[in-house]
Amino acid sequence: MSDTAEYVRKLLRQQVALASFGSFALRQSDLLAVLTEAARVCAQGLNVNFAKVSRYRKAENDLLIEAGVGWDDGVVGHVVSRADMSSPQGRAFMTAEPSICGDIREEHEFALPPFYAEHGIVSTIDVIIKGSSNHPYGVLEIDSEIQRDFDEHDVAFLTGFANVLAEAVSTSERTLVLEATISHMHVLMRDKDRLLDQKNVLAQELQHRVRNNLQLVYGMLAMQIDQTIDEEGQRGLRAIARRVSTLAQVYDQLLGTEMTRTMEFCGYVQSLTLNLAEIQDGRPNISLICNGAEIILDLDVITALGIVVTELVTNSYEHAFPDEIGTISVTLAHAKGSADATMIIADDGIGFEPQAESKRHGLGLIRRLVEQVRGTVETVSTCGTTWTIGFPVAAPIPSMG
Questions:
Q1: Residue 32 to residue 129: CA distance in whole angstroms
Q2: In the predicted model, is pLDDT for residue 327 greater than 90?
Q3: Is the pLDDT of residue 12 over 70?
């Protein structure tokens, strides 16, 4: 076989080796494994026994042998060269140009580390491995114990490997940044969960305290009612006590749940009406019924509408049934074709004719509360009295303060 044919075969083998290594590097996430495989394939492709990849260390300003093949124990991972012109790899690093040294024994400007002589190295090729920062990653070097006349095709072969290694280094650096970011996010998530747990504990403690204080105020009002002789004064105190009790019911519903800005309204109204019926236990022939759809509302809306329910149901108990027989119903439903909801409070009592500005039976308060939640109120009083209150479900509600 002619020398030309053998040379062509060598170039083809090198191209196949480079293509195969590129595929390997793309699949491999371990950078050290990629560097070691590059050293092995490069040594094989140029028919030498030694190859190494050196990484630049900025703080030390040196080149640490990070991976390699053929070297004795204690070289890879330990031996360094200065990142200057005193070694073949230092020269390639400093000039950013390929460095071919046919016989390092004749390069008198070099101050070589001892491992070159210990392994009998004579000829070297060094090419730079570019980095993603403002300095190269390091140097890829091929070493031979016999004198070799390396040419530009050999340099091109190594440069191709160095370019693949540069991309592998960049990928590894991006992966490390991503892993660090994910790790930091996990820490933040754990901190968030811990803070949320603490917040929920404090929120529940706050709920307990507010509920207990409201019940204390309610008890004090009840005592004051018993001590008040004037009937009009008793009526006023009872109205205040009912409203305090309604607020306490909100906190009763919140206890045992996480502190949120919303709550399910129907369950709250059912609990509230049950409490109102128990207060009227001396009137067994008046039934109070509550049913409806599940509706999630802002706490401020629930508080306002809860007071409306309390006022209207109590009005029915006190004024609609002179014969002490009848039915009161509270019904909740989503309005058809809109994001609003409807609450209907009705009784089959004697009915009455409210005035728009009347303060009788707390009607002025009811209208103000409905306006506060951006709702509407309609009253029909023919066969009993029916209050139809429409209100938005999702619209932001101003604070009651």
A1: 14
A2: yes
A3: no
Distance, first Cα to last Cα, the chain: 99
Indicate whether 357 pLDDT > 50: no
Cβ atoms of 126 and 115 within 8 Å: the answer is no
19-32 as b/e: b if 16+ CB within 10 A: eebeebbeeeeebe
Taking the C-alpha atoms of residue 38 and residue 143, their distance in angstroms, rounded to an integer, is 14
The amino acid present at 84, given as its one-letter code, is D
Which pLDDT score, from 0 to 100, does residue 3 have? 61
Q: HSE (CB half, 13 Å, CA atoms) of 243?
A: 13
What's the pTM?
Answer: 0.46
> What domains can you pick out in the chain, each with its CATH number?
3-183 (3.30.450.40), 260-401 (3.30.565.10)
Helices 231-254 and 265-279, axial angle in degrees (round to 10):
140
Q: Which residue type is seen at 194? A: R
| Whole-angstrom distance, CA of residue 99 vs CA of residue 125 | 6
